[in-house]
């Protein structure tokens, strides 16, 4: 490992540890204790100062109230940052006030010329496909701030069927398939729910602290709705592959040779959404239960058939 890389990694290791011994660094970075002392001197030249501790155990302590050394990035890290910034251009609105074009230009301005040329042609060789955001989300920043400040909100929400007013404890914001969603705890119904941000027509920040301790990590946990219905769907091999691409359905998949079975608990109110997705699967999915989902699918198919007499 080059000396510059060792200094870089040692700098962050020391910053996180705050207290350390020369032997600890020697073992960590496979150096002699004498070399460690030379590296500590080099780190002081970069602005990271330590003082030795007296006593039986000895060692060093990072001095407080000092100017932190500049962050050093490897070429791969800079490339990843630039690509991440470019990928955000798929979103016309973003939770934070950020101009992705300007941010990318600032990064290009501080990198060496050879790397700059590589970054400018990055999209010629590597792309991350993401749906283009096609709807407006005027309240995205307000919702994000409310979630971070842990305060309750009141929203006017336009669902496909009706408009309603809801009082929520916002947990966080996430993007999926080109849409922004608000993940929030509905205290009236005592359950977490997902709201399309572009369907939120009004937002009022309430001076009431949120009591929920939930985070977006809950998205990866199995959702158990109130008064759930058991859904069982037989899938072909192609149907299994399509369900594996869905962030919610893949958890209930039981894969076997030539196909599989999807078993999940669904809320009554989610039957229309579930039916819409299953219709996209066509003959690759056959619903076994619940009957209410089967009836909904039949009704939807009759509506479609009526368009083509």
SSE layout and pairing:
Elements (H helix, E strand, L loop, with lengths): L2 H15 L1 E2 L1 H8 L3 H13 L4 E3 L7 E3 L12 H13 L12 H10 L3 H8 L19 H10 L1 E8 L4 E14 L2 E8 L4 E6 L3 E10 L19 E8 H8 L8 E4 L2 E8 L4 H11 L3 E5 L1 H15 L4
Antiparallel strand pairs: 1-3, 2-3, 4-5, 4-8, 5-6, 6-7, 9-11, 9-12, 10-11
Helix pairs in contact: 2-3, 4-5, 9-10
Profile the largest sheet. 5 strands, antiparallel
Instruction: Please state the structural category.
Output: alpha+beta
CATH-defined topology of the largest domain: SH3 type barrels
The residue ranges in which pLDDT falls below 50 over 5 or more consecutive positions are none
Oligomeric assembly: single chain
Commentary on this structure:
This protein has 4 domains: 3-62, Winged helix-like DNA-binding domain superfamily/Winged helix DNA-binding domain (Arc Repressor Mutant, subunit A), CATH 1.10.10; 75-124; 140-220, SH3 type barrels (Roll); 229-305, Alpha-Beta Plaits (2-Layer Sandwich). It has 10 helices and 12 strands. It has helices at 3-17, 22-29, 33-45, 75-87, 100-109, 113-120, 140-149, 237-244, 271-281, 291-305; strands at residues 19-20, 50-52, 60-62, 151-158, 163-176, 179-186, 191-196, 200-209, 229-236, 253-256, 259-266, 285-289. α2 crosses α3, α4 (75-87) runs antiparallel to α5 and α9 (271-281) packs across α10. The protein starts with a helix and ends with a helix. The model has no long low-confidence stretch (mean pLDDT 85).
């Amino acid at each position: 490992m080059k000396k510059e890389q060792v200094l870089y990694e040692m700098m962050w290791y020391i910053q996180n540890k705050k207290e350390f011994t020369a032997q600890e660094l020697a073992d960590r970075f496979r150096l002699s204790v004498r070399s460690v002392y030379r590296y500590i001197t080099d780190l002081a030249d970069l602005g990271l100062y330590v003082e030795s501790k007296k006593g039986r155990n000895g060692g060093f302590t990072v001095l407080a109230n000092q100017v932190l050394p500049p962050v050093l990035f490897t070429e791969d890290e800079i490339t990843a940052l630039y690509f991440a910034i470019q990928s955000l251009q798929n979103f016309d609105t973003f939770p934070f006030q950020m101009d992705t074009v300007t941010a990318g230009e600032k990064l290009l301005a501080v990198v060496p010329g050879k790397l700059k040329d590589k970054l400018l042609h990055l999209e010629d060789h590597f792309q991350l496909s993401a749906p283009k955001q096609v709807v407006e989300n005027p309240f995205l920043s307000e919702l994000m701030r409310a979630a971070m400040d842990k305060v309750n909100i009141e929203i006017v929400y336009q669902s496909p069927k009706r408009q309603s007013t809801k009082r929520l404890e916002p947990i966080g914001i996430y993007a999926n398939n080109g849409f922004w969603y608000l993940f929030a705890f509905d205290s009236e119904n005592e359950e977490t729910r997902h709201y399309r941000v572009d369907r939120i027509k009004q937002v009022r920040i309430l001076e009431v602290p949120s009591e929920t301790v939930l985070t977006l990590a809950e998205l990866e946990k199995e959702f158990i709705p109130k008064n759930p219905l058991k859904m069982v769907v037989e899938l072909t091999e192609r149907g299994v592959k399509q369900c594996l691409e869905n962030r919610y359905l893949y958890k209930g998949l039981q894969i076997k040779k030539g196909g599989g079975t999807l078993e999940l608990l669904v809320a009554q109110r989610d039957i229309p959404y579930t039916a819409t997705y299953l219709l996209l699967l066509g003959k690759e999915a056959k619903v076994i239960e619940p009957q209410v989902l089967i009836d909904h699918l039949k009704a939807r198919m009759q509506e479609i058939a009526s368009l083509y007499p």
